[in-house]
TrEMBL record:
Record protein name field: FAD/NAD(P)-binding protein
Pfam families to which the protein is assigned, alphabetical: NAD_binding_9
Matches recorded under InterPro entries: FAD/NAD-bd_sf, HpyO/CreE_NAD-binding, L-asp_N-monooxygenase_NS-form
Segments forming domain FAD-dependent urate hydroxylase HpyO/Asp monooxygenase CreE-like FAD/NAD(P)-binding: 8-149
Species whose genome carries this gene: Ameyamaea chiangmaiensis
Amino acid sequence: MHPVTDIVIIGGGASATLLAAQLTRHGIGPRCVIIDPADSPAVGLAYATPCLEHRLNVRASNMSAFAGAPDHFLAWLRTHIDPDTSPDAFVPRALYGVYLRGLLDTTRVRAIRDVAIDCQRRADGLLHITLATGRTLSARQVVLAFGHFDPAPVPGVESLAQRQGGYCPTAWTTAAYAPLHAGDEVILIGTGLTAVDAVLRLRAVGFPGRITAVSRH
């Protein structure tokens, strides 16, 4: 019989990291596990961006990981990045990713690089989690912190674009930006915040061509 874990967090992004930090503050961290396939968990999709033009949409003074320490993130910025950081600054999301990685490093939560493929409550009342590698864990509680999934296929567009090449189903891969040339044109399907992020990154990597955004609605 393998040991029972108090809390298993499935997913290793920002929400998982913030939860791990809170659990550690309450002395529960050593009895918790994060399951995530990433080489370096902690940041999730939004804060893993390498583009410094991608900014937080909340002021630095309101981005602390701890409600009881509202200046925690601002103090971190002033210690590690710039001592003159304004509390009203909208800093790059990548910096918040560095902050989150540091938080996870200070927790006592163990991270397992794997994928959870099944979770069932058994007769003993425990939740039994099966991992892709065949390993199993038993837990008293499970937190689902999946984050964002890739967007759903666009009917009538995806199959045609895949056959012709040049189609990227998500804006969050390096492949979406690497092969572009000055004479190319980019069409973005969607006009929300992700489209804004895509435009900012396209310009940041030096793409000078035409960008057209088409609403899905």
